[in-house]
Design a protein that fits this description.
Elements lengths: L1 E6 L4 E9 L5 E10 L6 H19 L3 E5 L7 H20 L3 E5 L1 H9 L6 H12 L8 H54 L1
Parallel strand pairs: 1-4, 4-5
Antiparallel strand pairs: 1-2, 2-3
Helix pairs in contact: 1-2, 3-5, 4-5
Family: Belongs to the RuvC family.
Subcellular location: Cytoplasm
Catalytic activity: Endonucleolytic cleavage at a junction such as a reciprocal single-stranded crossover between two homologous DNA duplexes (Holliday junction)
């Protein structure tokens, strides 16, 4: 599975590409950080992020784009910018028919380090180790983008199994309710003929 991981941000937006193999085998293919100057108008900054994401999608052809979900931040302005950056990437993927999945920071940290409260240094160290890199990816946005892609590779099979189980349970419930409705109709007909 080829996954493009995106750590969205207006000033620095981490983008990575990882190939997931069998089991927990993952291979880093590329990583970069898109930077936009704070003095540019918001629309121009978002356009630069979108252009970079589109280039990556057209060049690398990922099957899935994994984006960090903005969960909560104390700085509302930062949270809005992060959400907007993630939104333009999700839109670019949707236009290309590429699946988009969102993962919270704690899901990513837990998948990569085993702790949902791990710090950036721990995430970077584990990403470096998992991918067998000679040196740690810098800045932290690059490591976070790789962590997102790794997280998706490892969580996707479980998420797919859960979705299939939920669909099967919903279908079983529908069949049960349909049989129950038929039984009630039959009972009402029998009661009406007496």
């Amino acid at each position: 599975m080829r996954v493009m991981g995106v750590d969205p941000g207006l000033t620095r937006c981490g983008i990575s590409l990882v190939d997931g193999g069998s089991g927990r085998t993952v291979t880093a293919l590329d990583v970069d950080v898109v930077r936009t100057p704070p003095d540019l108008p918001l629309a121009e900054r978002l356009l630069r992020i979108s252009d970079a994401a589109e280039y990556w999608m057209d060049t690398h052809r990922p099957e899935v784009v994994a984006i960090e979900r903005v969960f909560s931040q104390h700085n509302v302005r930062t949270a809005m910018g992060t959400a907007q950056a993630g939104g333009v990437v999700a839109l670019a993927a949707a236009r290309r028919g590429i699946e988009v999945c969102f993962h919270t920071p704690s899901e990513v940290k837990a998948a990569v380090t085993g702790s949902g409260t791990a710090g950036k240094a721990q995430v970077t160290a584990m990403v470096t180790r998992i991918l067998g890199l000679q040196q740690a990816p810098k800045p932290a946005d690059a490591a976070d983008a790789l962590a997102l892609a790794i997280c998706h590779c490892w969580r996707a099979p479980m998420l797919a199994r859960m979705a299939r189980a939920e669909a099967a349970a919903a279908e079983q419930k529908r069949r049960y309710e349909s049989r129950l409705a038929e039984l009630n109709k039959t009972r009402l007909k029998k009661a009406g003929t007496r």
